[in-house]
Design goal:
The chain has 127 residues and is α/β, with parallel strands linked by helices. The chain is built from 2 helices and 6 strands. It has helices at residues 7-11, 38-45; strands at 2-3, 17-18, 33-36, 55-58, 61-68, 83-86.
Length: 127
Amino acid sequence: MRVTDGTLPLLGVPPLLGRTFTKEDDSPGALETVILTYGYWRHKFGGDPSAIGKTLIVDGKGRQIIGVMPQRFRFLDQDDLALLTPFQFERNKVFLGNSATRPSAGSSLVPPSSSSMPTSPACFPSL
């Protein structure tokens, strides 16, 4: 499963071994990295802590193992999750948020003006 560098810290589950992804790991062109789930680590590496730093071939690419998640780690109810890889999207080419305030090429982000916001009591439902 591909995740951003902020996903695992947001979930509040630190790795059992190693580290989570950094912004550098999550940037295009960075060293290919991977975090193993506990079950995969036990099955493929026998629970050997020296797996950290080794290279694992994933989808034909060599990826450096940087971490192992604890046994209690669950993500989106996926019982068979084995590997976590960084998303590696170009942040300056991706916009997340309200498309009404999305900047066009060469412009800056401008919040909606207060004149475009409804203020009439008729616009709001009564409770």
